Amino acid sequence: MKKMYQKDWFGIPFQSFGKMSSHKLADSEFYSNFYKEFFKNYSSYDDLKEDWKKSKLELAEWIAGRISKGKVLSIGSGLSFMEKVMHENYKSLEVHVQDYASVSLKWIQNVLPKNQIHFVGNKIQIDDFNIVFLSNVDYSIPKETLAEILNDIQNYMHPNSELIIMNTTTIFSDLKLSTIQKTKNIIKYILTILKLYSKGQFWGWQRTPEEYREILSESNLQFIEDGVIYPGGVKHYFIVGEKLKNI
Ligand SMILES: C[S@@+](CC[C@H](N)C(=O)[O-])C[C@H]1O[C@@H](n2cnc3c(N)ncnc32)[C@H](O)[C@@H]1O
């Protein structure tokens, strides 16, 4: 596991809407403030970059390709572009979204029926989702909380349904640092103390495939498969777990 820091997102510097902290993890309040700023700069899905949309479109197609019909829930759906594509292109799928920064769901509210949009705090009343997925979300969740969330999600899942985690943050190489990297880190540390360098906002963690397999097992999910895909040419790690029958 390796900590990640970030200074901007979608071209919006975090300093433009608040103070960055390299110690406090970006939480729902941080994401809500970010999305408020985001919507001042972008007014519809048309404003988003084509290569970003291509990657999300291919990822959506990959997920949709795993079932012929049924209910799909996306946790941490954010702008929900993938979910819009699934809803519009796969009529046999009933697509649901949820994000703890509800302000992020502004655009998808014009696309999905109301009962398919879930706000944190309102209990999801459905217990037969065929696929639940987290796309580029887990990085922001501490390991223990992630295992708790994955355990809880199974209350909403149909027996033998799939839980999919996918992201662009997984690290595949050895976590041991090279001497050059160690030296760079020491220099950054000194510059940080001298207030000459800011690491940026504490954004979350990069994890290894082994850590994801461990999290799945701690969450009582049966490991099905993991691997790498390249939607829109962007490397994504994915791991699929199945809900155990006796849960
Ligand atoms: C990088 S965005 C990814 C959005 C979208 N899934 C995608 O792939 O484009 C991460 C999203 O996860 C949401 N998030 C982070 N932790 C969450 C949690 N514990 N529960 C629900 N949403 C969460 C954030 O608010 C943010 O919108």
From TrEMBL:
The name this protein goes by in its record: Methyltransferase domain protein
SUPFAM superfamilies given in the database record: S-adenosyl-L-methionine-dependent methyltransferases
* UniProt source species: Leptospira vanthielii serovar Holland str. Waz Holland = ATCC 700522
